[in-house]
Design brief:
Blueprint (H helix, E strand, L loop, with lengths): L8 E7 L4 E10 L2 E11 L6 H19 L3 E5 L7 H20 L4 E4 L1 H8 L7 H11 L9 H30 L5 H12 L1
C-alpha cells in the first residue's frame, strides 16, 4: 500500500545483519520527518543460522504489525569480507524481503553509497558522519546509539528523500502537462511516425 501524494507516510528502514538487524520507522509529511520508533533485532551467533533467520523474520514481522509502515527501504548488500559472510547477509536480506512481501508492502533497495549521499551529502561518508546527520535530521534519534539502528534510520531517510524528489518531479510534470511545449510536440510527432 503506497500512500497518496500529500498524505503522511510511514517508512520502515532496515539495515540487514546476521547478528543485529537494525530497523527504524519514520513518518514523512511533506518535508517534515518524524522518528516513530527504532531498534534492533538481535540473534545470538551461538544459535544455528536457520534459527537466527527465523528470529529476524519474526522480529521484523512484529515490527511491521505494531508500527504499520506503508513502505519499506532496505540497504543493499555491497560487499563482505568473505563469501560466507556475503551468503549469510543475502539470506538475512531474503527473510527481510519475505516479511515485507508477506505484509503486502513495497520494498525499495538502496546501495550504501546512495544512502550516505542522501543523508550526509557524499557517498564516501563514514559511519560516524551518517550517525551524526541522523541525529540532526530526526529529533529523538539517540546520539551514540547502535550503529545498525542509525544505519536503518539513514536508509529510511534516503527513501524519504527519494520520495520527495519523485513527488517534486511529478508535480513539475503535472504543471507542464496542460501546456503545448516543444517537447510535447516532438513526442506527438514521434508517436505518429510509428
Amino acid at each position: 500500500m503506497v500512500a497518496a501524494a500529500g498524505d503522511p507516510v510511514r517508512i520502515l528502514g532496515v539495515d540487514p545483519g546476521s547478528r543485529h538487524t537494525g530497523w527504524g520507522v519514520i513518518e514523512q509529511a511533506g518535508t517534515r520527518l518524524t522518528l516513530v520508533d527504532a531498534g534492533a533485532i538481535s540473534a545470538s551467533p551461538r544459535l544455528p543460522f536457520e534459527e537466527r533467520l527465523r528470529r529476524i523474520h519474526e522480529g521484523l514481522a512484529l515490527c511491521i504489525a505494531d508500527l504499520r509502515p506503508q513502505e519499506v527501504a532496505v540497504e543493499d548488500i555491497f560487499h563482505a569480507l568473505n563469501t560466507r559472510s556475503a551468503l549469510q547477509l543475502a539470506h538475512v536480506r531474503g527473510v527481510l524481503l519475505l516479511a515485507a512481501a508477506s505484509a503486502g508492502l513495497p520494498v525499495s533497495p538502496y546501495a550504501p553509497r546512495l544512502v550516505k549521499q542522501a543523508v550526509v551529502g557524499h557517498g564516501g561518508a563514514d559511519k560516524s558522519q551518517v550517525a551524526w546527520m541522523v541525529t540532526q535530521l530526526l529529533t529523538g534519534a539517540a546520539a551514540g546509539g547502535r550503529q545498525d539502528v542509525t544505519d536503518a534510520l539513514a536508509v529510511a531517510l534516503c527513501h524519504a528523500s527519494h520520495r520527495q524528489a519523485a513527488s517534486r518531479a511529478s508535480a513539475a510534470e503535472g504543471r507542464t502537462s496542460g501546456r503545448t511545449g516543444a517537447g510535447q510536440i516532438l513526442r506527438a510527432r514521434g508517436a505518429r511516425r510509428r
